[in-house]
């Protein structure tokens, strides 16, 4: 494989991406961001930190005690889904004292899905993923090879989802713990449902475990250069500076939103493709990066409802910088123009069917932009995403399948 010479391409191109940095939430005023510089690692028990034994941690503790009794019910939904919401890590969750449920909640499993999808797209783009028994291709019915590829894909999804996305979600909550104590005191860390030492242990466990899995995938696939490990290290670093001061990319509208958009598409795509094939053509980098521009637009939708708070806290989100009217057009334009560009490229290489499929999937997105996003992005943000994004992600998969199908040597 040509991994060694090509590794710099995704790294340079994705200078602001990560394996899923967490969605931007309120961050504290400068006074709230002042933290202790002491280094800590693990608690002796759930409620007390042994100052002498905890010595290796780049995630500074706060001097404020966050060990309050966790609330049994705080803003719980009443539709019977509060327990499920707690496990998925979304608002309206029920209170719990089960430490394993709390640990899972911190990783926000609902956010794993785009990363898992990205790995699937990379595997499809490789053109080298084998089914266990392909009903459409008699030459693709090697059961043992199909089982091995299925297992490789599953491990890559575990890497991208529970481990590296879980790491970035946990570290994001860690660095937002003080402002969350004001805005969302029922969250696991500010409520005291989990101790600070336990959170730090979880961060290290997920990070180091993810890097170990990445290296294992490189060994399994026979890479001369550990490209999956390198991408994972790079993405994890960007995830750190996305959440942590002083850079804290999430405070900047362009950098933060592009980091979100690119992390949900480019890095998991490259990971999946590296596991099953080669990153040996510029198009394998260019198309995921183009889709990440559309991802930037989608990420803006999450900022509309918090525009007033962002303005008061001095956060330069795109709705603050350009106003809601300006930001909604940036959102719609980036999503639409990116997919038009990809469709034009597919047409240019003779893949008319796939180009038509992509345009067909774009039409409902434009309709939902016209009927939901542009009229009132604040009121319709959730509804717009729920109705529009399925067409967007299936368009990404269609593009990946096209790349895997196309004969570039012809």
UniProtKB/TrEMBL annotation:
Compartments, as annotated in UniProt: Membrane
InterPro entries per record: Chl_synth, ChlG, Prenyltransferase_related, UbiA_prenyltransferase, UbiA_sf
Keywords, alphabetical: Chlorophyll biosynthesis, Membrane, Signal, Transmembrane, Transmembrane helix
Membrane topology: Multi-pass membrane protein
Lineage: superkingdom: Eukaryota
Originating species: Discostella pseudostelligera
Gene Ontology CC annotations of this record: membrane
Predominant localisation class: membrane
UniProt KW Membrane keyword: yes
Transmembrane segments: 199-217, 224-242, 254-271, 283-301
Family annotation (CDD domains): PT_UbiA_chlorophyll
Protein name as it appears in the record: Chlorophyll synthase
Signal peptide as annotated in the record: 1-18
GO biological process: chlorophyll biosynthetic process
